[in-house]
Amino acid sequence: MKYRWLLVSLMVLFLFSCQKRQTPVIRHIQIYASHDEYCAWPAVARAGNGDILVAFSLNEEHLGPDGKIMLVRSVDNGKSWSKPEILLDTPLDDRDAGLTVGENGVVLATFWSTFWSCDKYRNLPPKSYPDEMIEKWCRFVNRPEYLAAENLEGQSGLLSGDNGKSWSERLPGKDTVKGGIQLADGSFLIGSYRLERDFVGIYRTDDPRKEWKKIAEVKSENPDSIRLGEPHILQLPSGRIIMMMRATPKPYANDSDVSHLYFSYSDDEGYTWAKPQKTELWGYPPHLLLLSDGRVVCSYGYRREPFGQRVCVSGDGMTWKKENEIVLRADACNVDLGYPASVELEPGIVLTVYYQPDPDDCPQEMHPPDPHRSRPDILGTIWKVPHKK
After folding, report:
1. pTM for this structure?
2. What is the domain-level CATH number for residue 209?
3. Residue 15 included in any domain
4. What total number of domains does the chain contain?
5. Cα 84 from chain centroid?
6. Cα 100 to chain center, whole Å?
7. Half-sphere exposure (CA, 13 Å, Cβ side) for 65?
8. Is 266 helix (H, G, I), strand (E, B) or coil?
């Protein structure tokens, strides 16, 4: 009899151990891939008609002079994806798309366009790129049509009234990296950072075709050593607005211990904010998703070994614990990855989209990057949210 109980006990321990080791990852998917194109910085949103939209940057390299913004769509809840279409392609380097969904088929897309010069390229840190690539880019940015487009540098937007099927002409705007929110009164709210440099600016507008007004600033207590940026905001059912921010050390380093996500919140629609607090979550930049059960997911890249993508689930959107972190991927070969963003496919099932190179076809060393390597792709992971505790 005692041996039978011993056997039962061992089986229970084995089953419990297996359950503990179970991964929430259902499968990885490919959204867009091209060996010779650098795909990065995706934004994802579910349009009002149910379509899933993914906008991302396409370039020759991370700092290439000729980036454009592409858009793909899934009409079957992420099972298949359309061929990419051009969303924005000025003569400059267009990048960092954000998608904000409003009512009645409205989608706001926001961007940043960079004007490169030969001096900027030649002043990059040593071994950033092969010398022949720098000289090729110098010839590109010295063309008359490129020089004539310098006035296009900066923030801009496009507006759609039919769930992203057609778009307005290029509008003035504020870049948001991942997107913003629409408030109950119909106005739009975003967090922006690129022009602010040492703080996150909170901007609001009643109409994205018109002026954005800055209503608040959120900054680090130590702006000389830590810069807060690449924010994402989310409104909870209570009306409270929460914000996660990337912390970038000065001088910059991918694997700095400084780079924990910072958290703040507002109870007056973004006009005032709590002092930013360092969370237990290391990684960047953040994206926030409200689940159908009221919990909140924060997605972020992980640029130290093991390189990959991670998410954390919060029961209330206010408490973020390392113990609730989920590793979606830990198989990337270098730091050229991240910017994950998430959308709920069905209750408890989430798609997280990000950029990452093929782990079987990319070098560990990136200084300078091999121009013949497989460049990063737009990938996704479908995963199951753990049950509420």
Report:
1. 0.92
2. 2.120.10.10
3. no
4. 1
5. 18
6. 13
7. 25
8. strand
